[in-house]
Structures are given as structure tokens and as C-alpha cells.
Here is the input.
Amino acid sequence: MILQVEDVTKTFGGLVALSDVTFQVEEGEILGIIGPNGAGKTTLFNAISGVFKIDKGKVIFKGKEITKLPPNQRAQLGIARTHQIVKPLDDLSVVENVMVGACFGKGNAGLASARRKAGEVLEFVGLEGKGDVLAGKLNVPEKKRLEMARALASDPDLLLLDEVLAGLNPAEISNMLEVVKAIRNKGITILMIEHLMHAIMNVSDRVMALVYGRKISEGTPKEVANDPQVVEAYLGDPELAIGLLKDKRGRG
Amino acid sequence: MERGKTLFWLIPFLVFIVALPPVTGSVTLREGIFLILMYVTLASSLNVIMGYTGYVSFGHIVFYGIGGYISFYLMLRDGMHLIPAMILGGIGAALAAFALGEAVLRLRGAFFAIATIGVNEAVKALVNNLNFIGGAEGLFFNFSVYKAYGGAARAIWFSYYTMAAVTLITVVASYLIKMSKFGLGLRAIREDEDAAIILGVNAKRYKSLAYAASAFFPGMAGAVFFFKAGNIEPHDAFHLIKSIEMIFMVMLGGYGNVAGAFTGALVYERLKGFLLVNPLFKNLHMAISGVVLLLIVLFMPQGIIGFIREKSKKLRGVLE
Here is the structure.
């Protein structure tokens, strides 16, 4: 077990963003996280990567409790993430961006080996030849790849991917999914948030659904997709929907 | 693109400037170049916190004053030699910055800038009221202090060479910091502090260290300047206008750039010298500098060197 999240609760004022969320991630798996907008998915990532303090609960990574560690120390232990809203270091070149990950993450590389590592990782995510471009000049799909490259360069054990497919066209999506699978084949555990159902169902080993900060379902992609509670969260109450349809037919 | 060649022209150029007064024997030239050297030191060190890290330290002159006071006091009271007193002054300024940094570097953007002005004014008020360092009147050297250096005239030449050495060390250090892993971390903080932290940069510690480094060299410059002047008083040591001049120099040359801080200081000193002696402008030099700064921010935010870098790919490697 690489990650254990126990009873994590986070509130913002009166809003409960996460409520007693408990789950575990096995080493080497891809766990997909789904849920409607505002379900608390990104908040969960923030809790794991340490962006803010949680109100209650524990986060245990590789057997060590990290609940109170600042984000930079968690990064050095081997947790890397990408951001839903990309955060490139605009005025640094693409290579330098990736080198930051390699230098300060778990890899803790020196500048020379960070540069080599950056070259490898850029090729891996398909950004070869863009190394000297300023990160701010990349287009959105490229920036998403850069986020991924930066995270990967740190030699993480656990990678948190926050909507890396959003805003990409179908060809870019299938490219990105290949990259995700290739990362898993390197033995890196992946936790990914995604709205594109067919994509996440296809790539995940297990899926977990969050609604209003609560975990409502967990299991294989098929189990979760057929869970009435999940269907309800996305489409509303299925029986009510059928009832309404019948009602309408009856009157029509 | 050839990288890392900036110092190959910058250092010889600096040495050339330093050699001008002794070769020509001109005292006027020496005074002008002494000021240029001091400005280069101040601008290059401010560049570490402002240009690399992205924190505009508005009251940065406070460290120049602290270094000046510490060394002046040691030289006056204990008859300490300039060199050790200057180093202690630099260390004192750096420690003060490190301690202050832990508090004020939590603030971002304009709040940080304003807090640093407050720090400068607070230290000025404090020194004004500390009698053992002369209060508002400040401290004065006896001419006998210069005897250890072979008389006042030779002491002035000595301070000139000391300033030259400090400048050289500052420029080299600011370059090495920029090109190091530490510098990469600082530039990551400048671009997006939250992203840098997520990537593993210990932003809090890095900022404090950068602040300390950027205070160390002004502390030494202050020591040399007030040694040469022979007196130190709070109004001179913590003069906010000098702080603004430092920011102006960094912006003019190109922030975050070693050659930029150097060029900015050089151009500013010449500009100021020209404006001050020109009867038409002599009372307006700050006003004109302000207009120039405004124009830079509006039309050339990357400064002179940044502008050249953008236009010429070939020169990029030698202008870092």
C-alpha cells in the first residue's frame, strides 16, 4: 500500500469540501477519481500534496504519516502532481521548468544530471525540440505535457494527475493516454482525476466516485459505472427520471 | 547558443574601469568610478532578491546602513581595520536580513515592498535614538584613524580598491547564484511560488537565504563608503531615495540579469552625473529619473539588456 487516506475532512467556512474520505492506493495501480463539479476532487489532491492543512484525518504515504508535512517535503518523499489550471514557470525555458522538478523533487538531482533527465522526460512526453522555448509561449496541450514532464522528472512514486485530458482534442487525448499508460509501466502509481468517462474507465484499474465531499462508490470501472448512486449523482435519480418519463408519456 | 560567457567580458570590462583612475591619476575620475562601483554592487545584490526571486525590496538600503554602522562602530571604538570590520558589517546585515526575512517574506507583492520601507524607517528611527552610536548626529572619525592606512590620501585610494574588490566579488557571486541550483529554485519562486513549492522547492528557506545574500554585499559597500566619508549619520545611512535608485538601476538594466544590473548602474550613474551638473536639469534629476522609469516600465519592462536579449539570439549567451 503506497497511500492511505483516513477520515480526511476539510471545510472552507461552512462548506464541507471533504467529509471523512477514506481510501487506499496499491503500489503500481491507476486509481481514477470521478465526480461532478465541486465534488471535492481537487481538494482531495490538495490534501494529499499538502497545499493546505486538513481539519481532521490522516494521510499516510509509504507507511509514514505526512499529514503535517509542508508540500515541498512531500514532493521530496516522492509525491508529484500536475495542476488542472496549468502553472508553467513562464519566463523559464521548458528545459528549466523540467529541471526544477528534477532538482527539487525526490530525485534531488544536480544541475547537470537534471538537464540530462529533463531531456529524457521531454522526449517521453513528446516535447522534444521545445526545450529552449519559454514555457509561457507553449500552447495549452503542450503546457499540459510540460506539467506532466515536470512531475515525472522528480522521479515520483506517486503521481497525481488533475484533469490532464481536459481541453484536448480526441487525437491529443489518445496520445496523452498512451503517455499515462507508459508512466504506469515504469512502476509509478497514479491517481487521476478526469471528467472524460470513457477515458478514465479505459485506463484505470479502479475508480472512486466523490459527490459533495463524500466517497459514494469505489471498485472496478464497471462496478462504479453501474452503481445507482453514481448514476444518480450525474443524471439525477434514475427511478425518478423513469417515473417522470412515464408520466409525460401517459399525459402525452 | 553559447551559455555562461557573460563574465568573460564583464570582468575584464570592470577591471578596465577600475584601472582608469590609477593609470590617469585623476582624482575626479576616481570619485565618479567609486560611485559607479558602489552602484553596481548595490544593484547586483538587489537583483538577487528582486530580479531572481521576484520580491521587490523597497527599503533595501537598510542593509547598507546596518553594515555601515556596524563597521564604523567597530573601527571607531576598537580601532579595527577596514577589511575585518567590513566583513563583520556584511555578516551583520546578512543576519539582520535573514531574521527579517523569516517575518516579512511571508508577504507577497506590494505588501512585501511596503513592509520593507517600514523596516528601513523603523531602523532609522531606532538608530536616531541610540546614544551609543551617536543618535541623530551620528559618528565621526578622528583623522588619526586613517594613520593606520598611511594617511587620509592613501586611505581614500585604499577604500577605492576595497570597493573595487567588493564589486568584483558581488558581480561574480550574483552570477554564480543565478547559475546554481539555488538560483534555479529562486527563479522558480519568482515565476510561481505555489508551483515551486509543489515541485519541492523549500521556498521559505530559499527566500530568506536570497534575502541574506542580497543584504551581505550592500552591508560591505556601506562599510567602505562610510569609512571613506569619515562620518555616518542615520539620514545618510538609511536614505530611502537611495533605495529607489537601486530599484531604478535594476529596472533600467534588466531585472534578473547580471549584465543588466551592471549596465543599469553604469547608465544611471552617468545619467545622474550629467543631470546634476547640467544647469538646466540640476534640480530635476529625480523627476527625470522618475519619467525614465515610467517609460521603461511601460515600453521596455525587460530593461536595456532584456531588450537586447530579445532582439538578438546571438548575444543571449553573453548577457545572462
About this structure: Chain B touches chain A at residues 1, 180-181, 184-185, 187-188, 190-192, 194-203, 256 (CB under 8 Å).
